[in-house]
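Submission checklist for the structure archive. All mandatory fields must be present; incomplete records are returned to the submitter.

[x] Identifier: Ubiquitin specific peptidase 40
[x] Organism: Cyprinus carpio
[x] Residue count: 1252
[x] Sequence attached
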Amino acid sequence: MFGDLFEEDGDGFSSSTSGTGVKGRECEPPPPRGKIRFCGIKNQGGTCYLNSLIQTLLFTPEFREELFCLGPDELGCLADKDKPEAKVRVIPLELQRLFSHLLLVDEQTASTKDLTDSFGWTNNEEMGQQDVQELNRILFSALESSLVGTTGSSLIHRLYHGMLVNQITCKECGNISERQEDFLDLTVSVRGVSGLEEALWNMFVEEEMFEGNNLYRCSRCEQLVRAAKSAKLRKLPPFLTISLLRFNFDFAKCERYKETGSYVFPLTFDLKPFCEQNNWPDSEYSYELFSVIIHKGGCYGGHYHVYIKDIDQIGHWEAPEEVKVKLKTQKREDKVGERKKENENSVDAEDPLSVLTGILAQEESKCVLVDQLGQKLMNKTGTPWSKKYKKQYGTISKFLQNHPEVFMLVSNGTRVALKAAVPATTDPSPTEPVSSASANNSTENTEPETAGDTEATDGCHWFDLNDSTVTAVTVKDIEKQFQGKESAYMLFYRKTAMKRPPEAIGNPAYRVPPHLVEMVQEENARLQQRRAEFDASSNSIEVRLHLAPHYHWQNGALHALSPNEDSIITVTFDRRRTVGDLRLAIYQMQDLWEGDMALTLAKNVPAGLHLYDTLTDDQISLYSAGVSNGSDLFVWNGREVSGVAVKTGIEWEPVLLTVLRPSAEEMGCGDGSGVGDADGSGLVRSMKGFAGGATLGTVLEALGPQEAFLCQEQSRPGASGGGASGWRVFPPLDMQRTLRELSLKDGDALLLLQPEELDSSIFSLSGDIVTVTTPSDCRWLQVEFCPQSGMEEEEKEEQRKKRSKVSASGNMCLFFILCLDAECCLRQMDRTGKLLPPVHEHLSVRDAGIRLMTSLCLCPGPVPTATQLFLYFSVGLVPSVVQELEIIVEESLTVKECLREMLQMAKLEGASWHLRRVDWCEEIGEPLTDENASLKEAKVIHGDTLVLVEGRLPPKGYLKLSVKMCIDVIDSSSVPELNHTAECQSTEGLTTEGSGSEMRFIGHVEISEEASLDDLKTQMMTLPALQDVCVPSSAFLRVWLLEGKKLARILRGNQQTLRKLKLGNGAEVCVERLMKEEDLGLKDLLLRVQMGVPGEKAYYPSEEFLWDAGRDSTSRGLYAALASQYGLTPDSLLLAKHLPEKHTWMPISNWTQQVSKKKKKRKAENLQAAPFYLKDGDIIGGKNLLIDNNKDFNTLEDEIGQQRLTMEEANHNTRVCSATGECSQDIGSKKSGPTKNRKPEVALSINVGVFR
């Protein structure tokens, strides 16, 4: 449908297509029609359904001619359509213009923009998907309304309207009750029907019986009687439109689908069995197919195109390529088959006696070995005796023995000969298999190839009009549209009695009004003029001429003598003219040119201007010679430039190389006699150009003495590990190879070294690799002095100014840098400005992971040895907001000893402290439980961060749990133990939405991992906060596991150990007091259900509901359980889960999708899985549909929360936009997921003025 979405529509009658990238193609005219001579229609985005219907109406000649008969006196003039007093019938006028354009304008495509504008489509209606059957009815209705009061007011009714009658016949008295209906098209069923004729039989032949409990009340009998209902066609229209009901609705799946099964429809058929009248002429019942609108896709979208029969034969039909190939292959196979059949017939007509007699008669000796006779038989007939005659006659020896009157066996039966009495029968030679019949066939095969069965008997052919594309199709292609995703959707038939006049055949201008013909002629003249102008402009090219007297040969290429001199002349020339014409024009421009003139294609390469192919043939065009827009031509004598012979061709294309030599300073010649080092790298660079066909030995001879080394770069210097680079010395065999063979390209570097230069410390030779170690600026480390904490500000500022750039390499030991200050250590700094652990002084720069060209801080403090660890540590539960301290300890120290030293450094006292790690998220992790293990055994490494946490570690195998209690806010004052200390009774926030409860800390519990949940509850009851609370037994307590300070899950199974319940050391739990005993099963879910207040955006207080999810975890099971709880039926309930973070509700549907048995068994739905993830404590909202029609679950608090989230998101996008400079609209326009949103369906409409 969206094939031509980006085509541009022109104004008025024409449409232009813009070209790109070629001189003069800014307004390229539309191309003329192709061989088929038909015009397609552009797709405006989603108008393929309109294009298919318009083409069908165009190729309905009677409709088209009736429309053309309406002149401006009846329809008005389009120029007056904006005048309020004028009544201009715009839609018929635009259809006339569009039809004349499609018939006569020499253009491949036409636009329907003006037609859709006349429909009143102003809201991008052309971009939407619509149904072509609906468009057919609406367009005909609009035409009927537009033609009111004209001679064409009955056009649609006369051509397309038919009449059917519905009859009910009483079986008792024979009374017939009938109702007459007018129809524009017949809508037939596709489901359960094999084809069109069966569907019509079911509609108009078969009767529906009223009997049993379904009786009919007869008006004459005045009682319920048996009756038969039937329908018949009373009036047949000239054009019969049939709509196929391809789209249906599956009530089991609650979704639409497309019928893609086989549905056969005939090319011609007789409607007589379906009509009420049987006395009409037979021609009145006969219809032929002339248009098939095809839909490709599904029920929610797709593409339309149409197969149309060319009734007036105005197009040029050629068999499709695959049909031509198939016909040639078929004819070839038929020819071979006929010859083979003739040969077989000629041989089969003779019995084996005559065949063998003929073989022996042709032998000069008249005698043949029996063993050779079978071979001679196969050579003649192509089939061995065993396959052709053995089954009937036996072996060949037995056959010869059975005919002694003909054959004579001699030499003990090894040879056979003919008896003298037998006349020799001759047989045609196998080399002459062509009989007279085959000779006749050979003459017949010389006839020109035709389309065979694809040729139409009446001369009318079929075409596929697919928006802008028009192709030829065959009748067999129509049969392919019987079924599948791409199948027939609408059928258009015409009466076979309607014959076209001879003057209409092959005449597209037949009955077209003169004023439209004149308009088309003017449009064609404009198109021809535009094409001629465009043809001239598109063939004009600009060529740059380079004159040889202004160039010289240098560095392997041509260069202009002076950049200020005008050495390039730009000329504009027609590329269709010959090379000789261009040469003559240059001669006329250069009056002073003497001698021969050669024109050579040139190209600017990095080394300069290079010459390629010389134009020698003056008779060929510039286009054929390869001269295009922007080409460079060098004008010279063809031999030399400025006295230097110039070689041309791709093989001599120059290569610009970077040549490096040692600088004079590096080699100890700093007296100015040598070449200076320009960039401080120790090497001098120069650019040299050489012909690609030159050998490497020639390059070495041009650069230096023959004994010098020529090297190619292998590895570049890196930032880590020093600035050494590797160079490979070219072997002697490479000196005979060309630069092109060595794959050298522009920019490649070559190093030229003298043998004596390899003795320096800069260059070292190992095998064929030269290592260059130059003191470049990239081989240093910046050392900064970090001021001590006790210094004055002036001293600190003075220390910061002390910076030193130290030359370094990857192999240099850090000890030499520490010699700057023996009482300091070297430390790197990360991106946040934090000092990293000191590096060990015995490591090299590379082993320490230090990158060159970076800074190191020289900080006061000792350097850790190889057996020491540098550790960070902080005090408290939030290490990111507490100042970090640093300590150096031996890795053999135990965890307990390390803890003691850290407490001493932090000036803390007490024995109730322990150490915890900090993970990669900078959050407190697991504690170091084994205090007697060494730091190395505890896997504490250099640079780790530890946290001092107050509290004694439980013994090994024990857990220390933080216990909170969930209490009602109203009743919290009745428990005095919960109000005495602010630190212990700090409110953590509401545990559940709207529950009126909060969590408060009540103490710690130390308990074994092997203890049961019941033991944990019993120990919790000993806490001071619960001693004065009435708790009869541990069964009246419910324990929740907290994750992120929120209730996560209920610990169930009183006899389960804490290890199996996956409780870790330091976990947080919350205890809740119950009013009755509770022992939850492993599959039980505790939900908080709150029913909605009818007519209000509020809920009654929530109630706890225990749901056995192990019995049925689907939504149907939850509905059944809650319906039983509240005394309702599941159909009268509506449930949803509350999402407090988003302040929204997720509806839980009671409907379960049914799956066909043929499909794979669907996995059972589980509310504990995606997308609901039901867990303990979730809030389930309920609506009683018997008394509450409001299905919106949102409360006022939810709406306020959603507004707050929207504002926060907008503020966040604004901050991101201001920080990055990007538009926030792009952020909001991103899709959040892969879901495919369908556009809402909009009803199709056409606006028509009032003409009554």
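[x] Structure attached
Curator remark: DSSP finds 27 helices and 58 strands in the chain. The radius of gyration is 50 Å.
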